[in-house]
Design brief:
InterPro entries: Homeodomain-like_sf, HTH-type_TetR-like_transc_reg, HTH_TetR, MT1864/Rv1816-like_C, Tet_transcr_reg_TetR-rel_C_sf. The protein is mostly helical and about 210 residues long. About 65% of the residues lie in helices and about 0% in strands.
């Protein structure tokens, strides 16, 4: 689970109240989950008045939305840092998937929030930008570093969405304890290779350096 430095009134006096509130909000989220989240408690831990968060976020939905955007940004930074050069497509997708699962396990509360679309504005422009970053990272891992993210209903999107769906579904099962931790990880050994075969990723494409 993600950790942050202890809350302190000094955060406000250092001049970055928005960041301080997000840090405090993350602490509350990690301890109480989405259902028990309180903007008032986040303000208290940041050492500011109960009304202070409204200036930056409007309401609880706005604060949770900003926190979800931060979560997507962290995920994207982590996934984009994976070295893909010199790997074939199966190796690239396996490495990206492993990073995705690791992020979810290390940031359980944030990962849970990211998909609670009823709790914040899922169409916020900043959030949409980070969601697109995540898809681009996976898409380039699958189709190569020079691949441009296709728009709309372009069939080229199908493979990336299919792989993401598999990895995300597996991650949820793993977090809920449905995957036996004492056995070998079937995601990279069995599930992803089978998915890539179904998507008709040829051996030539797999062996082509990106």
């Amino acid at each position: 689970m993600a950790t942050t430095e202890p809350a302190s009134a000094d955060r406000y006096h250092h001049g970055n109240l928005r960041a301080a509130l997000l840090d405090s909000a993350l602490e509350v989220l990690c301890e109480k989950g989405v259902a028990g989240f309180s903007m008032r408690e986040a303000a208290r831990r940041a050492g500011v008045s109960q009304s202070a968060p409204k200036h930056h976020f409007g309401d609880t939905r706005g604060l949770l939305g900003a926190l979800a955007t931060r979560a997507y940004r962290r995920l994207c930074d982590q996934v984009e840092a994976v070295e893909l050069v010199g790997r074939d497509v199966r190796e690239r997708i396996a490495a990206l998937s492993a990073e995705y699962v690791a992020f979810a396990r290390d940031n359980r509360a944030l990962f849970d929030l990211m998909w609670r679309t009823s709790q914040f504005d899922f169409n916020d422009p900043d959030l949409i930008e980070q969601k697109h970053r995540a898809l681009r990272a996976l898409d380039r891992g699958l189709r190569g570093q020079d691949a441009q993210l296709p728009d709309g209903a372009n069939p080229a999107r199908v493979s990336s969405h299919a792989v993401w769906s598999l990895v995300h579904g597996y991650t949820i099962l793993a977090l809920e304890g449905a995957i036996d931790g004492d056995t070998s990880d079937p995601l990279t050994s069995d599930l992803l290779p089978a998915m890539l075969q179904l998507l008709d990723v040829s051996q030539t494409a797999c062996d082509e350096p990106r």
